[in-house]
């Protein structure tokens, strides 16, 4: 059984006292930010992120939320590419999170989920996501190895590697530049063991997460070492599944909004199914074989347990998410619909349907 350490539904209430923090105030559908400038320079990656504390009308406590906005960090070099897929990763993370909401069984995966929001930063409306703080009390976060593939060349690596247990050169040679699934699998298990994860738990987590990343076509796990994370206390260490912003890849630009809006249903479905048929094998950590079917075969040979998904509720939840995104940011509606369509098409494809089975249960965890 998986030890549950993430509660995505819990409202975390805190007393901020006189601390200098970014405060959020719910104003209709928008979260207005004030107080300390939003951006935490200590956090890795090019995307601007940090904690906010949302006011409660009937309490002196504030609701703590971790926020990622669709904007570059003011503390990092590098720029996002001009593509909806990159500029609006909040949409992707919301769509993928609805899959996790409806995953009745996922094996040893503690997964973080995200919700799309619209923020007001001194009059500027910016999209992003909120999520809970996955670092439990008396735990510390461990990032296996530092590498920022989207930064400028002089900022890709961290010279102070002592803060990360795995040197990036080792990660590069043993994971990114390796073309043997068994070697990648053994290296990841070795890394997790070195920071205190139980060996059997590590094996199961790596396999289940690899299968999940194939389902969602995650392009940013193997090549980005900062997306392999665990939390550690004095007596245990637990890997965490998170960060899905580079999943369900699609080339989508402003001119595509009208194109998809004007399609009849049959043409739209055919187009989305075509977009979902991604032949690349480079999804997730276990992705060294030439064909996805070979990668999937490796997963089953090494203990993969099929996911259980409430597919009917997932489809309803995706519709609700797309409608919510439409209310908050109408110009992203067609993009969200395409993303949701790609996800369902992948789940129902002959090649990937072997990774899951349908369930009418609901995830009450």
What's the helix-strand series? EEEEEHHEEEEHHHEEHHHEHHE
Q: Tell me the distance between the termini.
A: 13 Å
Q: Please, what is the average pLDDT?
A: 89
Helical residues, percent: 25-40%
Name the beta content range: 15-25%
Strands, count = 13
Cα shape: globular
Concise synopsis of the structure shown:
The chain has helices at residues 84-87, 89-101, 168-176, 181-194, 199-215, 254-261, 265-276, 292-301, 311-328, 333-347; strands at 13-14, 22-27, 30-35, 47-55, 62-72, 103-105, 115-121, 124-131, 140-143, 229-232, 237-240, 307-309, 356-358.
Structure in words:
- There is one protein chain.
- With 365 residues, the protein is α+β, with helices and mostly antiparallel strands.
- The chain has ten helices and 13 strands.
- It has helices at residues 84-87, 89-101, 168-176, 181-194, 199-215, 254-261, 265-276, 292-301, 311-328, 333-347; strands at residues 13-14, 22-27, 30-35, 47-55, 62-72, 103-105, 115-121, 124-131, 140-143, 229-232, 237-240, 307-309, 356-358.
- A six-stranded mixed β-barrel has the order 2-3-7-8-5-4. It has a three-stranded mixed beta sheet with strand order 6-12-13.
- β2 and β3 (30-35) form a beta hairpin.
- α6 crosses α10 (333-347) and α9 (311-328) runs antiparallel to α10 (333-347).
- The chain starts with 12 loop residues before the first strand and ends in a 7-residue tail after the last strand.
């Amino acid at each position: 059984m998986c030890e549950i350490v993430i509660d995505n539904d819990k409202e975390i209430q805190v007393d901020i006292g006189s601390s200098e923090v970014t405060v959020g105030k719910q104003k209709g559908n928008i979260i207005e930010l004030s107080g300390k400038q939003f951006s935490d320079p200590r956090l890795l990656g090019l995307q601007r992120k940090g904690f906010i504390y949302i006011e409660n009308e009937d309490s002196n406590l504030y609701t703590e939320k971790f926020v990622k906005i669709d904007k570059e960090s003011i503390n990092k070099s590098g720029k996002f590419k001009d593509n909806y897929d990159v500029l609006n990763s909040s949409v992707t993370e919301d769509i993928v999170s609805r899959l996790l909401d409806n995953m009745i069984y996922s094996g040893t995966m503690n997964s973080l989920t995200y919700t799309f929001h619209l923020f007001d930063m001194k009059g500027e409306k910016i999209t992003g996501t909120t999520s809970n703080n996955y670092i439990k009390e008396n735990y510390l976060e461990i990032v296996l190895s530092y590498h920022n593939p989207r930064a400028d060349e002089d900022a890709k690596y961290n010279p102070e590697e002592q803060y990360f247990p795995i040197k990036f050169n080792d990660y590069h040679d043993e994971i990114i530049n390796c073309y043997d699934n068994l070697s990648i699998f053994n290296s990841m298990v070795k890394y997790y063991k070195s920071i205190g994860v139980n060996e059997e738990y590590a094996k199961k987590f790596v396999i289940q997460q690899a299968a999940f990343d194939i389902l969602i076509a995650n392009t940013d796990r193997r090549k980005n070492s900062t997306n392999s994370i665990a939390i550690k206390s004095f007596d245990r260490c637990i890997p965490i599944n998170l960060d899905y912003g580079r999943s369900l890849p699609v080339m989508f630009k402003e001119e595509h909004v009208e194109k998809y809006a004007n399609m009849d249903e049959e043409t739209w479905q055919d187009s989305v199914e075509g977009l979902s048929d991604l032949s690349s094998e480079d999804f997730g950590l276990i992705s060294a074989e030439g064909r996805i079917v070979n990668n999937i075969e490796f997963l089953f040979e090494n203990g993969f347990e099929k996911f259980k998904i409430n597919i009917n509720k997932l489809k309803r939840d995706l519709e609700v998410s797309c409608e919510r995104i439409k209310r908050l940011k109408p110009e992203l509606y067609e993009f969200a619909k395409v993303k949701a369509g790609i996800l369902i098409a992948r789940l129902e494809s002959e090649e990937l349907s072997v990774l899951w089975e349908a369930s009418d249960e609901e995830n009450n965890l």
